[in-house]
Amino acid sequence: MNGATRRADAARPTSSTAPAYVPQGSQFAGLYGRELLKTFRNPWVLVITLVQPFMWLAFFGSSFSAVPLSALDLLLHAQIQSYLQFLLPGVLATSMLSIGMFGSMSTIQDKRFGFMKRILITPTSKATVYLAKALGSATRGMVQIPVMIAAALVFGVHLEGNPLLWAGWILGLVLLGFGFSCFFLAVTASSTDWQTPGVISNFLTMPLMFASGALFPSANFPGWMQAISNYNPVTYAALLGRGVVLSGQADWNYLAYLAIFAAAMVLIGTAVASRYLKAE
Asked: How many CB atoms lie within 10 A of CB 83?
């Protein structure tokens, strides 16, 4: 009798076998901190991150230095002191395009060297890993902002706007960088190929950069490029910053569009990563 009872009890499912929910706050903080340490411990990555947008200002921005301001005003549909003043918000917006590639490469590196397998056998969800990677990439891109502003001041660019407007503009850049980081990480979630992030980034960066209002006003574009520009989040980040820099004004509808873009990428990317992110 006792043996039958024990066998029946053993066959009966118990609540201890059900997986318990584990809060993800500490896991997220640890993974996000690791992403920051990886950035600041590698001097070459940090130097390239800082120097690349500066080179855009130095070389591309200076290429119009001999053009009369009256001609530039007609070309750019704005009253400016120099093309650098017009270009600064656009360069900061386009720099947010490429930061997601570094997050994707970091994820593939973690897969190739076994870290992803070790972290996923712990009570850490794939969504937590994904969001920590995306936020780490976006934070890496924010390092460029003070460097770019300092470089613009060195080149003699006059900047308008008050602290509230600047905070709104920087928030828009954060949302843009976070959104694109989520996008790139979602696209490469199931990949272990080193080349994949670079190929995807090169394929998407050029059309998104040139089919936006970052470098030139979209009013000069043909109709098909204007259609892309009207939905391109890079356009709205550049326009938001340009209003602050040139006239000390901001259209908060642009910030709302960037918030919607970031939220959509987070939701879609988290769903994709939760299903397709793999350890190897």
From this structure: 23
